[in-house]
Amino acid sequence: MDYDVIVIGAGHAGIEAGLACSRLGVKTLILTLDINSIGRMSCNPAIGGVGKGQLVKEIDALGGQMGRAADACAIQFRILNSSKGAAVQSSRAQIDMRKYSRYMRKLLARQKNLVIKEAEVKELIVEDGKVSGVLTDKGDIRSKCVVICPGTFLDGLIHVGLEHFSAGRINEKAAVSLADNLKKLGFNTLRFKTGTCARLDKNTIDFSGLIKQEGDSIPKPFSFSSRAVKQKQSPCYITYTNKKTHEIIRANLDRSPLYAGIIKATGVRYCPSIEDKIVKFADKERHQVFLEPEGLGVPEVYPNGISTSLPEDVQLDILHSIEGLEKSKVIRFGYGIEHIVVEPTQLYPTLETKLIKNLYLAGQINGTTGYEEAAAQGLIAGINAALRIKNKEAFILDRSSSYIGVLIDDLTTKGTEEPYRMFTSRVEYRLIIREDNADLRLSKTGFDLGLLSLKDYGRTRKKEEGIKKGIAFLRKTRVNPGKEVNDKLIRLNSSPLKKPAALENLLKRPQVGIKDLKTMHKIKLDIPESAWQQIEIEVKYSGFIQRQLKDVERFKHLEKIRLPVDFDYSGLSGISREIKEKLVKFKPLNLGQASRISGITPAAVSLLMVYLRKANG
Ligand SMILES: Cc1cc2nc3c(=O)[nH]c(=O)nc-3n(C[C@H](O)[C@H](O)[C@H](O)COP(=O)(O)OP(=O)(O)OC[C@H]3O[C@@H](n4cnc5c(N)ncnc54)[C@H](O)[C@@H]3O)c2cc1C
Predict the structure, then answer these.
(1) Domain 454-550 carries which CATH code?
(2) Which of 104, 128, 212, 562 is the most exposed place for a label (fewest CB within 10 A)?
C-alpha cells in the first residue's frame, strides 16, 4: 500500500484535508491537476463574510489552516454587522490571492507525511465495496482511504455568451473521466452553476469620483493564534450600475446562456449574476459594485457584484457604462460554469460515502459554494479519514456545537437543490455558537484530536479561567451611588444609582460596557484582554444564553440515541413503508438526525424511541 490517504484536489477543501491527515500522522498524498493552482481563489479575493467568518474561526480553533493563511495574506479586514449583536457579527478580509496560493504551496511542501503530485485522477479503484486507490493519467496509486475535493472541475462546462467549452476553471481542464466514473459507481449527481466577473486593470480605472472603503482601523485577525496584522492594508472602492447598464443587459438577454436556455443547471441564489439581478429585481435602479484589489502590487481589480456569462463585447459595454470604469481595460473576461455535484445525502456526517467505504467527499462536490464551506468540509473529511486509518472512533460535530456541524448536517440530512452557502440564519443556536467564542467551543476538541498545539490550547485555557475570574469579580464587587459614578451613568443615558449595585448588574444595562465599568471602578485583574469581550457578552445576554442552553439540552437528548447503520427497520410495526424506506436509504446515525430527514414524522420518531428503549432494556 503506497499511501494511507489520497486527497484528490489542492483547492480549499483538499488543502485542509491533506493537512489534517498528515498532521495526524498518516501518510498522505495530494493529487492536483496543476501544482501552480494550489489554494487558488476561483472567484472573489476575499475570505469570510456573514456566516463564513464563523466557519473560518471554527476551522482555526480545530487546528486548520485557513484563518492563519488569511491573516498572513489579507490586505483589508472588516467585521461585518459590527453595529448588530455578537451572534451575527462576522469577519471578512480581502486577500492577496497570489500570496495566499504561494503561502499554501510552501506550507504543503514543508509538511511532514505529505507528498504533492500533479496528476489527473481518472477513476477510483474499488474492491469489495471499499476504495483502495486511484487510477491516474500517470498510473495507479494505492491507498486505504481517498478524499475527493475536485471543486467545479467535475465535467465542468464554461459559458461565455452562446459559446461553451469543457473546463474546470478558466484555462484549466475539466475532470470528465472522474465525473463519469462517479456516476458509473452509482452516485446520484446534480448539475449546478456558478459564475465570475471580469478582472480589470487598476491603471485604467478612474477612482477619483468613487466612494473609498477602508478596512477597520484596528484589523482583527481570523486566527486565535495571530497576534496582530503587520502587512500593508489597501482600500476598496464602490461604484454602481445605472439605467444605461441595465438597458445594455436587457437588450442582450438573448445572448445570455442563462436566458437563451443553454444553461440548465441551478445557480447560486444569493450570488446572482448581473443579468439575473436585472431580470429578477427589475424595479431596482442601480446595483452596488465593489472594486476589490486582487493583491498588493498587481493590476487586477475584481468588480464584485457584476458576475456574468454574457459575451465579451457586451461585458465591455456593461463595464464602460459604469462610473469610474468608462475607460477600463479587461485583463480576463467573466464567465459562467456548470459542473456536476454529488447529492450529499449519500454521505454520513463524517463525509464518508454510504456507497463506498473509506471514500470521503468534501467541498464544492457536495453542492456547496465558497472557499470557507469547502475548507470546513475538507478538515472534517481529512480528520475522519485519518481516524479511520488509526482505527479510532469517527469525529462528528453536531448542530449545537458549531457552524461546521450545521453545514454538514444540512447537507447530509436534507441535501440541497441549489448551491449551498452558509448563513447565520441557518444556525438555530447562534446565540451560543458565535465567531468570538469558536476557540472556547472547539479548541479542546482540536487539541484532543492532535491538531491544535498545546501552546494554542493553553491560550484558550487561560481565556476560560479569565472569564470565570472576571465574572466572579463583577458579581461580588459593588459600587456605591456616589456623584462620580452617577455622573458617568447619566452621561451614558443610564439611570443613576440609588443604592449600591454589583458591577455585574451595571454591565447588564444596555448602555454600559466593560470599558465604562473600568472607568467607574478600578479593576485590577490579571486576565487576558480577549476574556473581557466574552465576559461582556456572557453577562449582557445571560438570560438568552441560558434559555438557548436549555434548548440544546433537549436537542442533545435525541442526538445521543444512536441508530446502528445496519439497523433493521423492516420489523417495526406502526411505521409506514415509505418512512422505513427513507430510513434505510438515509441510514441516520442517531434519532436526532432521523427526526430531521424530510418526511420522517414525530410519531415515527417516538415509535423508534420506544423500540430502541425496549431493545436496550
Ligand atoms: C467561476 C467561478 C465562480 C465562483 N463564484 C463563487 C462565488 O461567487 N462565491 C463563492 O462563494 N464561491 C464561488 N466559487 C466557488 C469557489 O471557488 C469554490 O466553492 C471553492 O473553490 C471550492 O473549493 P474546493 O476545494 O471544493 O475546489 P477548488 O478550489 O475548485 O479546487 C479543486 C481542486 O481539485 C483539483 N482537481 C479536480 N479534479 C481533479 C482530478 N480529476 N484529479 C486531480 N485533481 C483534480 C483541481 O486541480 C483543484 O486543485 C466560484 C468558482 C468558480 C470556478
Answers:
(1) 1.10.10.1800
(2) 128
